[in-house]
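Continuing the series of single-chain predictions for the mutant panel. This is the parent chain; the variants come on the following pages.
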Amino acid sequence: MDITVSGQQIEITPPLRDYALEKVGRIQRHFDHAISADIVLHVEKKRYSAEANIRTKGTIIHADAAGEDMYAAIDLLTDKLDRQVLRHKEKVTGQHRPG
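Parent structure:
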C-alpha cells in the first residue's frame, strides 16, 4: 500500500511521519485490497486534526479526527479508519455469489 503523508501549516518531521506510517500501515493487516492512503495533517491555532482517504478497489474510505496534540489526532484517526475498513471488509466478503 502506498501511503502519502502531507501537512497544511505544519512541518512534517521524520518522527511524526514514521508514527503516521506505522499507525496507518496496521490497517493493511486487516484489509489486503487497499491501494493507497493519503494522510493530511492540519494545525489551526491550537486545534490539531488529521484526515485520511484510503483508496480500495471500487471505493474510497474517508475519516477525520481532531485531538489535543498531533499524535492523539493520528491515534483517533486510525481507530476510525480501522472500524470503517473492517465494516467495509465484512460488506465485501459477505456478498455471496450465485452458483
